[in-house]
């Protein structure tokens, strides 16, 4: 009898321990869930055995009969899982290749065995072979305000093919490794009409959705292993008298996931940016990249703090995995993220910087602003790609955010736009799909590139400072909550109206209907320039539509027309710059609603050239070439290019013909 | 000293046949123009009356090229197939013209004659073609082989930190470059031998080339290494010039064209210097062998 009583007391104290403040002065989130995990890595068997105590608080006004949890690692259990079916791959033939999580024991707060009440469910596709989500019926329903305690003993086997998580030889990246609560959404939250669990299966092309939690995690590993995690290191002790193993205690507060890595080959570096202690783990061979990596992450911290909101944690760890762990590269777990690089990366190629900036950015877009990546991937990847491009182009050059070679420069924002506009799948579906519903290959194009491109377009229309203000407001309103697309749009409408009044209409919904929810493309074209000599009509003289100079020289009066055409379905307001032969320039604005628009002038000079969107603000426009027209095309560039092609070809043949 | 003398003699011989170099340069220009001029037309059509070319003033802008869409896809296809055809025709043309060049470089100075240049080109065409093709095939085979081994080592060392892969790539590159230099030396000796003979005998020539390369390796290899290094440095210089010179006027572009063609002329002259130096070294070694043969009698 005594044991359950002690257990119950401990369980009751557990949330207080978890809710206590160690890292930040005040809790950043509601902390609906909390986890205390004691984990031990077996580097031979490639397993982690863990004892987890966790809680979930029913913050809704619903009476909830069950809980739902993710068992993500089961995605690697066989080729029949939803993950592998979608991936059209298989985890290999050997047992060592598979990954899984086995529940050894699952008890409730009073020590009740809940294993008989566990049911595997597949809410997304009904795949009976998929065991990545469980529903656990509660012996006693959870009433509003109730806290559900669980204690789970589990064993996780890591897969050998690292896809975000797994092992290779002595390298371990341990993510999606413990049973994790889904998110209970009461009616009115995001798109929920009635209360229910939002707990999706593990998909090939999707990321995650979780509540902000507190994690107290003990990790026991062989002593030679270097460990990095999303938590703050609290304690490090020998875990056995022989001193073969060590136990590291980590604490993480208000983050949405806890992952860690262990590898004996890591070199550890530390740096500081204002209140943030930054730790970098990378292979010895890449020590020369340490400065590049720290600079990149500090740039991102500075830019996002200024333009979005503060980074609230005092610790941040990032990892540049070695070649053998490259499958874990480019992933984010809020206060831990992985970059991507190679042993020799020239300075002009900003790949490590770009990945670092991008993955760090996720600390904001899904870490702090914890959107549902399963259902609205654009809110995470799209927004983050947009900010990544802005940061890269700001710090590494307007035209050289990605590549800065004397012979070739590529900006980051160009890469996003090119990926979107040149994709054949750009119109297959809208940008508002569940991540796993995108047709083959369209997930990346839509959720990263299209979203980033239309966010740039939005910025082009409303201005940079208004855009920053939107994101500041979005942060203020939705930090440590679960915003959805309509919440972001509401913030946009509110801020744009506050700053610009009704300049863009009563709201900006017209923009989102076309870009986020629509499948159309945006393409403007200068269709024609017409200059006809005309006589001055009395009407023109009467209406004053005649420059004074032309009155004295009526022979030189022209009826000049610039015809603009909207080829694409997306109608956005654009600027049109019209240049006359005497150097005069007129900047017109067109709402873009009709298919054609003629700009007519009666002047003493001809129109020489016309440029639509001369500042390239409408980055969704799929073809910039037809955005301008001149009567006197500049052929010098083509000639220069041809000359270079001729010379390069000559050298090429001469080289191969020795 | 032997190397210096051969290099000096090679340079003088190359300068002596500048008219031959001019013929080679002109043929290259003609050949490449067959592909480049239609490309220019396609580019002009692609950009039409657009002012987007303003964005290309400072150099290549991938975003602008990407907006060419289907035209760019066609251009790339045309460029790739054009380059392949150029390479094929280039090999044929080179086999023809190097016959004339090597012939003009041999022996003590006789005045360059275009008629003799073309006669020698025609006479040596088939044997030069076989030599070129065989050496190319060997280079191709060895390249694939060495890259294959390197890839295997790199994949094997996937679990290492990365140093092994890096070392493997460096070692493979050094081996490959050395092998290429040796094979070019074989080809040059073979061609120098061939023009000295009346009858075409390409296999005998290759046999001679191999024999002479390895018999005189200590002098031939460093000389070839120097000559190839100069050519590589020169190519790098040309790339730098072309990359940084961005004229914005018609006159400037014309000047760039003249400069580019002059640089390519120099490139052929450097190649001819190589031919001349190898020919000179061969002839000096021939004399030495003959002298040794007479003293043995």
Q: What's the CATH topology label of the largest domain in chain A?
A: Immunoglobulin-like
| Helix-strand category of chain A | alpha+beta
In DSSP terms, counting alpha (H) and pi (I) runs of 4 or more, how many helices of chain B? 9
Q: How many strand segments of chain B?
A: 0
Beta content of chain A comes to 25-35%
Low-pLDDT stretches of chain A are none
Largest interface: A-B, 61 and 74 residues
- By CATH, the architecture of the largest domain in chain A is named Sandwich
Topology, number of strands of chain A: 31
Shape estimate of chain B: globular
> What share of the residues of chain A lie within helices?
25-40%
Mean pLDDT of chain B: 89
Amino- and carboxy-terminal Cα gap of chain B? 28 Å
Number of helices of chain A: 14
Rg of chain B (CA only): 23 Å
Distance between the termini of chain A: 91 Å
Summary keywords:
A: alpha+beta, 14 helices, 31 strands, B: 297 residues, mainly alpha, globular
SSE order and pairing:
The complex is a heterodimer of chains A (658) and B (297).
Chain A: H1 2-19, E1 33-42, E2 47-57, E3 64-70, H2 82-87, E4 100-108, E5 118-120, E6 133-142, E7 147-157, E8 166-168, E9 171-174, E10 180-181, E11 183-185, E12 196-198, E13 213-222, E14 226-229, E15 232-238, E16 245-255, E17 260-263, E18 266-273, E19 276-283, H3 290-307, E20 315-319, E21 331-332, E22 336-338, H4 351-361, H5 363-368, H6 377-396, E23 403-405, E24 408-410, H7 412-421, H8 442-462, H9 464-478, H10 485-500, H11 509-515, E25 524-533, H12 538-543, H13 548-552, E26 558-566, E27 574-580, E28 585-590, E29 596-603, E30 607-612, E31 628-630, H14 636-656
Parallel strand pairs in A: 1-13, 19-20, 20-22
Antiparallel strand pairs in A: 1-2, 2-7, 3-6, 3-10, 4-7, 5-6, 8-9, 9-17, 11-12, 13-16, 14-17, 15-16, 18-19, 21-22, 23-24, 25-26, 26-29, 27-28, 27-30, 30-31
Chain B: H1 2-16, H2 18-47, H3 62-66, H4 70-105, H5 114-156, H6 163-196, H7 202-215, H8 217-244, H9 250-296
Helix pairs in contact in B: 1-8, 1-9, 2-4, 2-9, 4-5, 5-6, 5-7, 6-7, 6-9, 7-8, 8-9
